């Protein structure tokens, strides 16, 4: 049974599970004690907890996650699906973070915690609590603001630094690819000479400016051919070509077949990398999702479990 104080407070209530091997989680809760009301769980369960005892957040604290302790996270998520879970861990890997989010955690924190990361987390936690306690919560869902700042591992790369001066041109192409786009005008928009703009564009995206625009038009033409009944001539004008015959030649060179054959499923050769791929800025979207998050443990965790001879029943791998 979890012992939670039922006194109403404005600070977020955290139920903290210490899953460290040396029971050191209490030392880390100090970083949140000034902004949150923290209760260390006396048992590894939420069974029997009434509405007044429900925390705003469950914190699962690890030093070296193993099969048994990670399975506990899954069990708690199933037992209390409406309570968000934060996973804190000293031992971190990319596959562990991916597993955590697929298992339904609300946030994933790597210890020791940076001050900026602590500030971000507490701000998001306060907004979450305000949203969940709002009396108008059921009337209209308000989106929770989460940080959109890119991680330093991305922002500090040479590739990202090269892309930044060109973003004005890329955004303009995305919005006006069906119009005539002058390279000199784009260079001025980015504050560069035409020579420097052309050189930097080729270095950054691997293709020239005109080829980039052409591929963007081909992407839109492909979309219209597959998802509309527009005549090929109308599609040519819609994506920025003044001559349908030139559009047909460019399309065949790009896709390996003429537009009408492509629409009928007669594509013969794979087309080159799209402008969307060249920018490396788009994200893949999945059209379907599993009804339940994937809960297969990371390979590194499962391999360790096998090496130390943990019982097979402790694993949560699905057949």
Task: Describe it.
With about 325 residues, this protein is of the alpha/beta class. It has two domains: about 130 residues, Response regulator (Rossmann fold, 3-Layer(aba) Sandwich); about 120 residues, Arc Repressor Mutant, subunit A (Orthogonal Bundle), CATH 1.10.10.60. The chain is about 45% helix and about 10% strand. It has a five-stranded parallel beta sheet, with helices on both faces. Strand 1, helix 1 and strand 2 form a beta-alpha-beta unit. Helix 8 packs across helix 9. The longest helix is centred in the middle third of the chain and has 19 residues.
In short:
The protein starts with 12 loop residues before the first strand and ends in an 11-residue tail after the last helix.
Structural shape = elongated
Q: Remind me, CATH topology of the largest domain? A: Rossmann fold
Give the biggest sheet: 5 strands, parallel
Order of helices and strands: EHEEHEHEHHHHHHHHHHHH
Mean pLDDT: 78
Q: What is the CATH homology-level superfamily of the largest domain?
A: Response regulator
What's the tally of helices? 15
> What CATH architecture of the largest domain do you see?
3-Layer(aba) Sandwich
Classify the beta-strand content into a percent band: 5-15%
**Number of structural units classed as domains:** 2
The helix content is: 40-55%
Which structural category do the helix and sheet elements fall into?
A: alpha/beta
Distance between the termini: 33 Å
Low-confidence stretches: 1-9, 279-294, 308-319
Give the neighbour order of strands across the main sheet: 2-1-3-4-5
* Quantity of strands, as a count: 5
